[in-house]
Write a structure and sequence with these properties.
The complex is a heterodimer of chains A (about 375) and B (about 300).
Chain A lengths: L15 E10 L2 E11 L4 E6 L5 H9 L6 E6 L2 E2 L10 E4 L11 H11 L4 H14 L15 H13 L5 E5 L7 H18 L2 E6 L2 H7 L2 E6 L2 E6 L1 H6 L4 H6 L4 E10 L4 E5 L4 E5 L10 E6 L5 E4 L11 E11 L3 E8 L4 E7 L14 E5 L6 E3 L2
Parallel strand pairs in A: 3-8, 3-9, 6-7, 7-8
Antiparallel strand pairs in A: 1-2, 1-4, 4-5, 9-10, 11-12, 11-14, 12-13, 14-20, 15-19, 16-17, 16-19, 17-18
Chain B lengths: L4 H5 L5 H29 L14 E4 L2 E4 L4 H8 L1 H34 L2 H12 L6 H12 L4 H8 L13 H24 L4 H9 L4 H12 L1 H16 L3 H6 L7 H11 L3 H33 L1
Antiparallel strand pairs in B: 1-2
Chain lengths: ~375, ~300
């Protein structure tokens, strides 16, 4: 099964375009002037906490909510006046919303029957899509006779049966347990690639967003805080919210001390040291900024090791807590200023070689290019 | 005496559970099974001008019991077409009333289930409100509305739409008005209870898959509300078959329903065996829909678990 190449639309143009879309529920502004472009064939994740407006945005794309302002274009066509049942879009619901009184086969056939396709054609396409999601053995079952993972597959099959160009997925993996979720993530990627469908996925789970998406948008109280690839968002967050929301981060307030040609020097009281970064941002000496450093980018050296020296990007401290996570250990280090810094250390050695770091005096250091300076 | 380990572990059943389950069983035995057996007994005896007005089922001859079973009551019911017509008329009235209750009640139940929280409570109260007035009083009120010099005829005359009063009372029309009016809440409440549970996501999913609102209703909402339709329909149908008050006050005089027939046999003809036979046959007639109702309820319980 291949997605048919569209005759009319230019593949270079964005497939979905939102222009200053807002949605108000009474006085509450759920979505605040969101503009966004989503390209054909990509998996775009909308990531945000509850109440960030991500689901409202998705529901506006499906046509269940009407924007209070702004326009939504799908494949170049203005969707403002198009009801949900005429949109070239299908949605996979968070609750799956499988019809309880219909069998798996009937559920998947529902959308095709609305297109008035012949019965053999419907049967053929239902069988085809159930094959893809590996549910061919369960055609006669009712939803309540299926496990959570099986329901998820049927919901996916039902949403894909009409061969939509754009599939909206609302927390597609939230109801699955951890192991199943990981496996299903890769299956979703596989199916997406195979069918060439554009996916827009809403999720609150940053790990899910990181693995699934080709690009993602981080949402904060109705606005899109940042759009980018997972790596861009992780490595170069634009503000403290994004830095803190994706992964964990050590954030310390400071003042710009000097601005060089290729670097910035920041006097950072909470770190108790001067930090230097090669990542320049728009700022002037004296401005308040935040230094952000990811826990895994900090090196930890025990007392007496050659790394121990004073200087920039270097602080002393005492390890307070060590949490063994298997692949990594998370250390909470109380630095001389009294603040706590989180450091992630890979567990490279076996059991015998592991050091007990608890209560050890250590020096933390990091590269000038790992440190991100945030002005917001 | 020592108890074995295994016996200790088995949880003792809470004795109150049997007691609680026993109350409805006892209630049914005392107020349904025993009276029904009495009625069944009378139906197999013979009418007599005495107190009680029927012959005992067992007579004693030389100290031995001799059963005196008469089928004359039943024979009478099956030979006189009056009874058969009355049964058929009752079933037809019950069926048509149920249909009207469904047609009027479904949209009302649907609207209430979809109304906002504040409205919903208010609307439900409006449905239940008539029960605060005497049922008899409300049926009498319809006489005032429907009679020849009643409100409806007077208004129509005043507006010049008619020139002579039209006969509304003691027709099939007035009978259906009275029954549908009285039994509508019994249709609405179970339907509401069903529709209120529907997840709005089902309708969104249907729309998302290309179904227009009407198709979505017919293929998603309606099939899922079938248990509610069945419950409401039976709650209307079953009592209407035996309805006595409304047909007596509002109904036709040339065709009586089976409830009226029963009362006439008991009180006017004092033929208790025939009256009991009528009662037994009504029950047999209603066993079918009652069994249906139970099956629907059981299936719904299974589906929900």
């Amino acid at each position: 099964m291949n997605a048919q190449p569209s005759m009319v639309s230019d593949p270079a143009l964005p497939y979905v375009r939102l222009e200053a879309v807002s949605k108000k529920f009474g006085e509450f502004l759920a979505v605040d002037e969101v503009s966004l472009e989503i390209r054909r064939g990509e998996i775009f994740c909308l990531l945000g906490g509850s109440g960030s407006g991500k689901t409202t945005l998705l529901r506006m794309l499906a046509g269940f909510e009407t924007p209070s302002a702004g326009r939504i274009y799908i494949d170049g066509e203005d969707m403002s006046a198009v009801p949900p049942y005429e949109r070239p879009v299908n949605m996979m619901f968070q609750s799956y919303a499988l019809f309880p009184h219909m069998t798996v086969e009937k559920n998947v056939a529902f959308g095709l029957e609305q297109e008035r396709l012949g019965r053999p054609e419907v049967r053929r396409r239902v069988a085809e899509i159930l094959e893809i999601v590996q549910m061919s053995a369960y055609t006669g079952r009712r939803p309540h006779q299926l496990s959570g993972g099986q329901r998820q597959r049927v919901a996916l099959a039902r949403a894909l049966a009409k061969r939509p160009k754009l599939l909206l997925l609302d927390e597609p993996l939230a109801a699955l347990d951890r192991k199943l979720r990981e496996r299903t993530q890769f299956e979703l990627l596989n199916i997406q690639e195979r069918l060439g469908v554009t996916f827009i996925v809403v999720t609150h789970d940053q790990e899910e967003a990181m693995t699934l998406s080709s690009r993602m948008g981080v949402m904060e109280s109705g606005r899109i805080a940042q759009v980018g690839t997972p790596a861009e968002i992780y490595e170069a967050p634009v503000n403290r919210f994004v830095a803190d929301f994706i992964g964990s981060v050590n954030l310390m307030e400071g003042r710009v001390a000097a601005r060089g040609e290729r670097d910035l020097t920041i006097r950072c009281e909470p770190f108790g040291c001067t930090v230097r970064t090669t990542r320049c941002v728009e700022c002037a000496p004296g401005d308040t900024v935040w230094a952000a450093i990811r826990p895994e980018k900090i090196a930890l050296a025990s007392e007496g090791s050659p790394l121990e020296a004073s200087g920039d990007n270097r602080v002393r401290g005492k390890v307070r807590e060590v949490a063994y996570m298997g692949d990594v250990s998370i250390c909470l280090v109380e630095i001389d200023s009294g603040k706590t810094v989180r450091v992630t250390l890979p567990n490279r050695t076996g059991l015998a070689a592991q050091r007990d770091l608890r209560h050890a005096s250590v020096t933390l250091s990091w590269d000038a290019e790992s440190l991100v300076i945030l002005t917001r | 005496m020592e108890q074995r380990e295994g016996q200790k572990i088995t949880p003792r059943r809470f004795p109150g559970r049997q007691f609680v389950a026993g109350i409805p069983a006892l209630w049914l035995t005392v107020f349904f099974v025993i009276p029904f057996l009495v009625v069944l007994k009378i139906s197999f005896s013979e009418a007599r001008l005495a107190i009680p007005p029927y012959a005992p089922l067992i007579s004693w001859l030389h100290g031995l019991p001799v059963p005196q079973i008469h089928l004359s009551g039943y024979a009478y019911l099956f030979t006189d077409p009056l009874y058969l017509r009355s049964y058929l008329y009752s079933i037809m009235v019950a069926a048509v009333s149920t249909l009207f209750c469904l047609l009027i009640g479904y949209p009302m139940a649907y609207a209430i289930a979809r109304a906002g929280d504040a409205w919903r409570t208010f609307l439900l109260m409006l449905i239940v409100l008539p029960f605060w007035t005497s049922f008899l009083l409300r049926v009498y009120a319809w006489i005032g509305l429907l009679q020849n010099d009643g409100l409806i005829n007077n208004v129509l005359l005043l507006l010049g739409l008619i020139h002579h009063p039209i006969t509304l009372l003691q027709t099939d029309f007035s009978l259906y008005v009275g029954i549908v009016y009285s039994y509508l809440p019994f249709m609405i409440l179970p339907l509401y209870a069903n529709l209120e549970k529907h997840d709005p996501a089902f309708l969104e999913a249907a729309a998302d898959l290309g179904a227009r609102p009407l198709t979505a209703f017919l293929r998603v909402t309606l099939p899922q509300s079938l248990p509610g339709i069945a419950a409401g329909s039976l709650l209307v149908f079953i009592p209407v078959v035996g309805e006595y008050v409304i047909p007596t006050l509002l109904g036709r005089t040339d065709q009586i329903m089976i409830g009226r027939m029963l009362s006439d046999e008991f009180f006017d003809n004092r033929d208790w065996p025939v009256a009991s036979g009528v009662a037994v046959l009504i029950l047999l007639l209603l066993v079918i829909p009652i069994v249906l109702l139970q099956r629907v309820e059981r299936r719904q319980l299974e589906a929900e678990s």
